[in-house]
Amino acid sequence: MKLATQRGLRDSADRLGGARLPLPVLLDEVTALFARSLPYDCGSVHTVDPLTVTMSSCRLLDEPPDGEQIAVYEYQRQDVNRLSELASGPRGCGLLSAATGQRPERSPRYRELLAPAGIADELRAVFTVDGACWGAFAWYRTAPFAEDEVELVHELGPVLARAFRAAAAATLGTVADDRRRPPGVLLVDGGRRIRWATAPARSWLSELGFDGEPAGAALPHELRSVAERARVDGVAAEVRTLGRSGRWVAAHASPTDEAGQVAVVLEHPTADSIAPLLAAAYGLTERERALAGLVLRGFSTDRIAARLVISPHTVQDHLKSIFGKVGVRSRRELVGRLSLGSGTA
Q1: pLDDT band of 183, cuts 50, 70, 90
Q2: Res 18: pLDDT
Q3: 25: closest CA among 205, 171, 138, 176?
Q4: Dihedrals φ, ψ of 133, to 5°?
Q5: What percent of the chain has pLDDT over 70?
Q6: Max CA separation in the chain (angstroms)
Q7: Which residues form the HTH luxR-type domain (predicted)?
Q8: Can you tell me whether residue 253 is helix, strand or coil?
Q9: CA pseudo-torsion sign 267, 272, 273, 274
Q10: Beta carbons of 139 and 34 less than 8 angstroms apart
């Protein structure tokens, strides 16, 4: 990659990191940024729910061969460079060719999807900062990737993660506990198609950009990962994603008694379900999130100290750090910001 291109990509990523763009706009901008700078045959950029490390939305470039099946290979198949593994690993970036020891045929994803489409290699990365994954990236080529391209994408991961985190914080800051639209229910069959949908579910599907007839249709991208995770793990899974109206949607998936079948409930996220995501968006550490959660439950300093086995003085030090990150001055303001979603980051 030319030095000027590398410098331009870094500068553009830095600008996005400070732009505080709305989340859908940021997703488009990041996709366009990579499309301008990295030669590609096809690709995708995803937002990720950092609490569950589940893909929550995406932008596709020229229909990647794994587009509809990406959740199956991510959660059901044993494969290399799965996004969840990259997010928890020492490096948030990897080439399929390197991960398979230059024998890509070892990868089911390569054998069954990429090779038939003429793809020679795949570059994947996650956007992780402070231990939380906010986005992901997958780029495909019929020619190999250069090592400096891989290193540059790895370098940009935390920068772009901060941009996604800031966008999420600003958007989550407007969330209210709105129950005016009733929950909707989808039943997804073993073939990963919508078997039936309640009337409210149709409205929620429209919020996710699906306006056709649900019966027999494939799930929107925003729901494929959470449904597949429930199918594979055999337990309930959830994800929060932003609808096209700017409202957040909570999706809860659970396996049914029938093999391979999954029920998906779509509803407004409650303030309690948004609070942990908002805490992560403000960059709170794991200990700070636990402490903030106890504050939201009305625990006193002494009770928090006893619960977390720390001193009251340490509790106060953590609170000062939390106040600074969230931009508040008191417990009351903190509770208002995290539980009601009032204000912005």
Answers
A1: very high
A2: 78
A3: 171
A4: -95, 125
A5: 94
A6: 63
A7: 277-342
A8: strand
A9: positive
A10: yes
